[in-house]
Amino acid sequence: MSLQVALFFLFGIGAIASAIGTITRRNPVAAAVNLIVHFFMLAGLYLTLQAQFLAILQILVYAGAIMVLVVFVIMLLNLGNEEALREQFTLRKVLGAAIAAIFMLQLGVFFNASPSQRYLSPNAASLGTAESIGQALFTTYLFPFEAISLLLLAALVGAIILAKRKVE
Predict the structure, then answer these.
(1) What pLDDT is attached to residue 52?
(2) Residue 121 pLDDT exceeds 70
(3) Burial of 140 (0-12, 13-18, 19+ CB in 10 A)
(4) Which of 32, 43, 68, 137 is placed for a possible disulfide with 58 were both Cys, Cβ 3.0 to 4.6 Å?
């Protein structure tokens, strides 16, 4: 087993463990910390798959910006109603068992597949690079990219206008 495969399995096991930690923690801040660890493990998986650009984006966007927002919201909320959470616990058990069964079914399909179907194609290694993403954004998806940039510009202008009204 090569180092890359060993790291892939290490990051995969870490991602699964931190995901389980995220959904089993009763303290929301501890769950958020586990989610941050999960995002870093996913970035490690991207690195082992030669998708460096996606790994950096995973760390910057999800582990950075999104988790700051999640922790900020958790700190502002008053999570004192534990009776409602206990009533939802049985539904969560059933839902968790269903998701686990689907996951086991997918694992069975994967391991019963022929070896040629289990692995990525040779072209898949170039899909996560900055060059391939830039090529796709500025050729195939140029119009949606420009539409989203205009939408973000409108949102920024609207946020600035709303912020200035409150100051005056």
Answers:
(1) 86
(2) no
(3) exposed
(4) 43
Q: Which of 40, 35, 28, 38 is nearest to 73 (CA)?
A: 28
Cα–Cα distance for residue pair 114/144, rounded to 1 Å: 38
Closest of 49, 25, 57 to residue 134, by C-alpha: 57
DSSP code of residue 50 = T
Quick check: 118 pLDDT over 60? no
Q: Can you read off the two tokens belonging to residue 136?
A: 């796709």
pTM: 0.59
Distances (CA, A) of 89 to 22, 85, 101, 120, 147: 15, 6, 18, 39, 42
Q: At 124, which amino acid appears?
A: A
Residue 10: which residues within 8 A CB-CB, separation 6 or more?
Answer: 44
Which CATH class name applies to 1-79?
Answer: mainly alpha
**CA–CA–CA angle 84, 80, 32 (5° rounding):** 95
pLDDT in tens, 127-136: 667 888 888 8
Token pair for residue 85?
């959470």
- The reported pLDDT for the residue numbered 123 is 62
